[in-house]
Amino acid sequence: MAPDHKKIPPTSQKTPDKISLKLRVQPKASRNAFAGIHNGAVKIKITAPPSDGAANKMCVKFLAKSLRLPKSSVRIVSGAASRNKTVLLTPGPGKDAKKELDRVSRLLDVFTGGAKTR
C-alpha cells in the first residue's frame, strides 16, 4: 500500500491556506535536523542556543530551507519562550496554496519518517 502523503502529525492542522504545525525544539544540538515525532509534535534539533531568540530564528530558517518555503511563510505563533512551539506555514507568494501545502505535507511526512509516533 502506498503511503498517504497528506498525513501530518496528529496535533497539527491543515486548512486550504495554511498548516499549523506543533513542534518540539531541542536547542544546542550538534546539527540541525528533523528527529521524528515526539508526543504528537514534530521534533527538530537546532544548533543555536535558547537565548536572545537565536533558537527561534534558527528554527524558522531551518524549516524554511528544509520545506523550500520563504522565511516569511514560516511564523512562530506560540511558544516563543518554550521548547514546545506552534508554527504557521503558509504558501509562498504567487503559489497555488493547495499544491504548495500538499508539497509541504509530503516533505514533512518524509522528514518525520511517515509521521510515526515515538
From TrEMBL:
Transmembrane segment boundaries: none
Domain of life (superkingdom): Bacteria
Gene3D superfamilies: YggU-like
InterPro entries cross-referenced by the UniProt entry: DUF167, YggU-like_sf
GO cellular component, one term: cytoplasm
SUPFAM superfamilies for this protein: YggU-like
PANTHER family, sorted: UPF0235 PROTEIN C15ORF40
Recorded family membership: Belongs to the UPF0235 family.
Protein name, as recorded: UPF0235 protein EPICR_30180
Organism per entry: uncultured Desulfobacteraceae bacterium
